[in-house]
Amino acid sequence: MVSRRSNLPTTGEVSVTELKSYNYIKSFFELPKLSPEDEKLPFFKRFQKLREIKSKDGTGATNTKILMRGVMLFQAPTMLYAFLWHIVPFFFSDYGPWAEYYMRVLCCYICINGLANWLCVILYDPAYRKSKDNPFLQVGGYDQPPDQFVPMIEQSSANGNGHCVYDMSNKEALPWEYCKDCEMYIPPRCHHCNICKRCILKRDHHCYMVGNCIGFKNQRYFAVLAFYAMVTGLVGGYFTFKYIQLVVWPQLDSWAYLFFPVAIWKSLFGAIPGFHVLLLVHLPLEFFFGFIGFVYVTSQLTVISSGKTLHELAKKVPVKSTLSVNKHFRSVFGDFWALNFLFPMTLIFRQSDDGLHWDGIKIDHNGNEKKNYGDYENKTV
Ligand SMILES: [Zn+2]
Ligand SMILES: [Zn+2]
């Protein structure tokens, strides 16, 4: 008899799919080997070393990406279900059918808007590469910068990265640099990301929560996503907490059930209903996302209003902006920037910059002690 399993490609006894899932689960718990000297370091230093090794080989980032996308795909539909069918009727039925109806519409709107911005952050590629917008990008040719540049004016960095060339058509502009990994000249404010393995236009930071870099093309969606994460996390978390307090708590036999792994285990034996377990899983996730959303929406709005990026602040890149706050917002969100918080306005209001030329952004010669702009570049995570 031929079993279904024998049709799968196998390595000995185990199928490839099984092997892949086994390796994936193992990679979460497996720690890389440290050298004998590093083993003697104090606990915190050892932890930092392990983190460095994991971020270099990329497994840590890939695992987090799959985990966080999985959590998001679980959380959004189940939370919408919990609110539409249980939490909203419980809290708003006293105010009449219309109140309940409008609250349901509001829940759907917040969920759709959050998901739309999440997809935009993932699908809009923030990398600097040959594309419809940028068909003439030259790859390779370290000695031959594009025609409008003066070659090799400044060799600023010791590791061979960060050779600056200057655009002759605009003498005021920040220099372009050479990225050794991508083998091409990259525009000012573009930085290489070691996790994405690409140069990111106006790189802000690599976001582990969504699993890709935040840069010129997707920062507008990221700021809005952080806002919706904050609203759903904190307001949704509050209502879930009240519902648990009023409905779930009186039915629990022990406070230990509030700890969701215990609740999941007990629900297998029918001790508590599945829906109550779902809420107990939601509650810590909601407050977690709410807190992260709050941190990011405030930091993004601050950084955008100052005209800088988190990367430039973290690496102390000496740039300053001569533009107004309004221009900074238009550069990220396009015109009428606040409308983006109502719905993604991609096609209607385009960003006012092209991501390559930064006329109002200049080198800040009094920024800090180091003199060369290129000294700060290409030493990214
Ligand atoms: Zn690069
Ligand atoms: Zn990245």
| Structural class by secondary-structure content | alpha+beta
Query: What kind of sheet is the major sheet?
Result: 4 strands, antiparallel
**Strand portion:** 5-15%
Give the number of helices.
10
Q: Average pLDDT value?
A: 81
Please write the string of helix (H) and strand (E) elements. EEHHHHHEEEEEEEEHHHHEHE
Describe, in plain words, how this protein is organized in 3D.
The chain is an alpha+beta fold and 381 residues long. The chain folds into 3 domains: 14-57, no CATH class; 59-124 and 222-297, no CATH class; 149-217 and 307-376, no CATH class. Helices cover 47% and strands 11% of the residues. The strands form 5 sheets. It has a 4-stranded antiparallel sheet with strand order 3-4-5-6, with no helix packed on it. Helix 4 crosses helix 8 and helix 5 (97-123) crosses helix 6. Mean pLDDT is 81; it is low at 1-6, 152-160 and 376-381. It binds zinc ion (2 copies). One zinc ion is lined by residues 179, 181-182, 192, 199.
Question: Gist?
Answer:
It catalyses: L-cysteinyl-[protein] + hexadecanoyl-CoA = S-hexadecanoyl-L-cysteinyl-[protein] + CoA. The protein has three domains: 44 residues, no CATH class; 142 residues, no CATH class; 139 residues, no CATH class. 47% of the residues lie in helices and 11% in strands.
Explain the layout of strands and helices:
Elements lengths: L9 E2 L2 E2 H14 L6 H4 L3 H15 L1 H34 L4 H27 L25 E7 L7 E5 L8 E4 L4 E3 L4 E3 L4 E3 L4 E3 L4 E3 L4 H30 L11 H8 L6 H33 L3 H5 L4 E3 L3 H9 L27 E3 L18
Antiparallel strand pairs: 1-2, 3-4, 4-5, 5-6, 7-8, 9-10, 11-12
Helix pairs in contact: 4-5, 4-6, 4-8, 5-6, 6-8, 7-8
This protein binds zinc ion (2 copies).
